[in-house]
Amino acid sequence: MKRKTATEEQNHLPVIGVGPLYVLPTVAVTILAIALSKRNIIPPLGTVPVIPFYIAGSLSIVCGIYLWAAAVFSSRIDVKIKQNTLVTDGIYAHVRNPVYSAFLFLCTGALLLCCNIFLLILPPLFWLYLTVFIKLTEEKWLLKQYGAEFETYCKKVNRCIPSIVGNE
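Above: the chain's sequence. Below: its structure in token form.
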């Protein structure tokens, strides 16, 4: 019996993918920004209404937790990747990258809870980093792996920001 090579055994995308290369820097910058804000190294710009920041921050965190849980537990993305299946249902009908989006929402929520307007420059930068990063890596891999099926999916579903309606 011939033993399969690593390449033959793994004709699917990596399960973790490039996730740590997005998540770790984003979380690290968020933690650093919060620490600098708390120490007044990044001082707040005047007084801001705290309640709206707390509400928006809390909602963003809840949304992030939901996105992550829906991708990992409901859609079972790890299993689908190993089966070499393009996942387009469940949470993936609402956003193409729910795990990355989850961290975008979680970090944004944490920054909002600081009530420091200066920190609000970071979420658009995180989004830009995510967009460029995904376009240069995973989207190229997925296009090569799934071709027209992935192109059609991209036309229907947002990369980072979930749609409420979905495309199931």
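Helices lie at 6-9, 19-38, 50-74, 77-82, 98-112, 122-136, 138-146, 148-156.
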